[in-house]
From TrEMBL:
<keyword id="KW-0732">Signal</keyword>
<dbReference type="InterPro" id="IPR040154">
    <property type="entry name" value="Biotinidase/VNN"/>
</dbReference>
<comment type="similarity">
    <text>Belongs to the carbon-nitrogen hydrolase superfamily. BTD/VNN family.</text>
</comment>
<feature type="active site" description="Proton donor">
    <location>
        <position position="179"/>
    </location>
</feature>
<dbReference type="InterPro" id="IPR036526">
    <property type="entry name" value="C-N_Hydrolase_sf"/>
</dbReference>
<feature type="signal peptide">
    <location>
        <begin position="1"/>
        <end position="22"/>
    </location>
</feature>
<dbReference type="GO" id="GO:0015939">
    <property type="term" value="P:pantothenate metabolic process"/>
</dbReference>
<keyword id="KW-0325">Glycoprotein</keyword>
<dbReference type="InterPro" id="IPR043957">
    <property type="entry name" value="Vanin_C"/>
</dbReference>
<dbReference type="Pfam" id="PF00795">
    <property type="entry name" value="CN_hydrolase"/>
</dbReference>
<dbReference type="InterPro" id="IPR003010">
    <property type="entry name" value="C-N_Hydrolase"/>
</dbReference>
<protein>
    <recommendedName>
        <fullName>CN hydrolase domain-containing protein</fullName>
    </recommendedName>
</protein>
<feature type="active site" description="Nucleophile">
    <location>
        <position position="212"/>
    </location>
</feature>
<dbReference type="InterPro" id="IPR012101">
    <property type="entry name" value="Biotinidase-like_euk"/>
</dbReference>
<dbReference type="Pfam" id="PF19018">
    <property type="entry name" value="Vanin_C"/>
</dbReference>
<feature type="domain" description="CN hydrolase">
    <location>
        <begin position="36"/>
        <end position="307"/>
    </location>
</feature>
<feature type="active site" description="Proton acceptor">
    <location>
        <position position="80"/>
    </location>
</feature>
Length: 497
């Protein structure tokens, strides 16, 4: 007979499974981690130094995992780059990498650590999951040797991948995902040859996983939701906030609503790099979120979520995003427009000169319609209605269609489109719609101080983003963010593969 201590993880896992099966909900956790970074170097450090740094970060993550488990969480997501940071060249990251096998090998690193060579990071993550009876999601680096028989093999004889791993409550490796859409600064990693649609089943729903920049593209993000029909997406990220449309909490909450799934988003925390913003997002809005640009502290978030949101009685109905906008005449005054830049994207804007009104702005194939009433029209604040229909990006170009009600940083109209974090104007009501040429539209509402507006707006079936009834806080932006994936240009760094 096995000693009672050896039986404990199995007993805890069985209890966790029964607890999950007894309910249509599950308790999820994400941890925003203030990563301990290595010293920037062009040369590899000794493997012992690399492991020491990773253990320092895993010490922090283990504390968060234990706390989440003690509060009853079934799964916890930790951030991209959360174990070793991001200050690397291709050569200098090598000591931090491990060989991550295909989960089909049926492996529990905690109980069989030497099966695939030295894997101390995977062993420790596996034991965190097993000892706390909780699914653990982490981001690490995978290395795969290759040779001249592979024409795509890098010159140094190995592939290096930005990799997510998932260990179940027994510590078994159940998912491995190689990031497909690398950000421009990730030169230390290789692109996988094909996109991966990684899913796994749990007693509390079907899960998929991808990483950071992937969320903006059709593969794997849309494939996982529409074709693989996952209930929840696990999302380790190292997201640098970009106002006015791409702060982490703003876009990730909107994506979960637009795609109709849960999104467990765990961001790194580094205010120098404008990294903060994590959350547990649902089709109905944020269940919990955190944004903190003032301190360097991590944060654990927990929330109870629907295990199968599509079966929930509160699941939002399907939306025809262009139905309302294409059924009405353009509001007068469209010629009173001007151009302004949101970063490098040239928008067509129209100033909201009155306390209330109806406005239309068009660009390309997109016309945006706004009906609004301000609580008070301040002389020191300017709002605009904006439209953008075109390719975004420099190295990587992908197609956006955006309708936005947007605050300008000052009364000088040339500043419209530049970042602004605070406002003083509230709206009694607004209704925003557009003639979108896509079914992939993500509704965003952002309040002063970079805060979300849960429960204070709705998306109608005819595609209107509407306040209900007014904004409780001053408004930075109300935006409908559309993606025309079929008009994206091929990724220039992936063409050569």
């Amino acid at each position: 007979m096995l000693p009672s201590q050896a039986l404990l993880p199995a007993v805890l896992f069985a209890l966790a499974a029964l607890r999950a099966l007894a309910s249509d909900t599950f308790l999820a956790a994400v941890y925003e981690h203030a990563v301990i970074l290595p010293h920037a170097t062009q040369e590899p450090v000794p493997a012992s130094d690399a492991l020491a740094l990773m253990n320092r970060n895993m010490d922090v993550l283990e504390g968060a995992i234990k706390e989440a488990a003690q509060q009853g969480a079934h799964i916890i997501v930790t951030p991209e780059d959360g174990i070793y940071g991001w200050r690397f060249t291709r050569e200098s990251i090598y000591p931090y990498l491990e060989d991550v096998p295909d989960p089909a090998v049926n492996w529990i690193p905690c109980t069989d650590p030497s099966r695939f060579g030295p894997t101390p990071v995977q062993e420790r993550l596996s034991c965190m999951a097993r000892n706390n009876s909780i699914y653990v999601v982490a981001n690490i680096g995978d290395k795969k040797l290759c040779d001249s028989s592979d024409p795509s093999c890098p010159k140094d004889g190995r592939y290096q991948y930005n990799t997510d791993v998932v260990f179940d409550a027994q510590g078994k490796l159940v998912a491995r995902y190689h990031k497909y859409n690398l950000f421009r600064s990730e030169t230390q990693f290789d692109y996988p040859k094909e996109p991966e649609a990684v899913t796994f089943e749990t007693p509390f729903g079907k899960f998929g996983i991808f990483t950071c920049f992937d969320i903006l593209f059709y593969e794997p993000a849309v494939v996982l939701v529409n074709k693989m029909q996952v209930d929840t997406v696990l999302f380790p990220t190292a997201w640098m906030n970009v106002l006015p449309f791409l702060t982490a909490i703003e876009f990730h909450s909107a994506w979960a609503m637009g795609m109709g799934v849960n999104l467990l988003s765990a961001n790194t925390h580094n205010t120098t790099s404008a990294m903060t913003g994590s959350g547990l997002f649902t089709p109905e809005g944020p269940a919990a979120y955190h944004y903190d640009s003032a301190t360097e502290e991590g944060r654990l978030l927990l929330a109870e979520l629907s295990a199968r949101p599509r079966l929930s009685p509160t699941y939002p109905p399907a939306v025809n995003w262009s139905l309302h906008a294409t059924s009405i005449e353009k509001f007068p005054g469209e010629n009173n427009t001007f151009s302004g830049a949101v970063r490098k994207d040239i928008f067509t804007f129209r100033e909201l000169r009155h306390k209330d009104g109806n406005y239309t702005v068009c660009q390309g194939d997109l016309c945006c319609h706004l009906v609004y009433q301000m609580s008070n029209k301040r002389r020191d604040e300017v709002y605009v209605l904006g439209a953008f229909d075109g390719l975004h990006g420099s190295l990587i170009k992908y197609h956006w269609q955006i309708c936005t009600l947007l605050k300008c940083p000052s009364t000088n109209l040339s500043t419209c489109g530049q970042p602004v974090e605070t406002a003083q104007t509230k709206f009694d009501m607004f209704s925003l719609s557009g003639t979108f040429g896509t079914s992939y539209v993500f509704p965003e509402v952002l309040y002063s101080g970079v805060q979300l507006a849960p429960g204070e707006f709705e998306v109608l079936r005819d595609g209107r983003l509407k306040s209900k009834p007014g904004t409780s806080k001053p408004l930075i932006t109300g935006t409908l963010f559309g993606r025309l994936y079929e008009k994206d240009q091929p990724h220039p760094l992936r063409i050569s593969l």
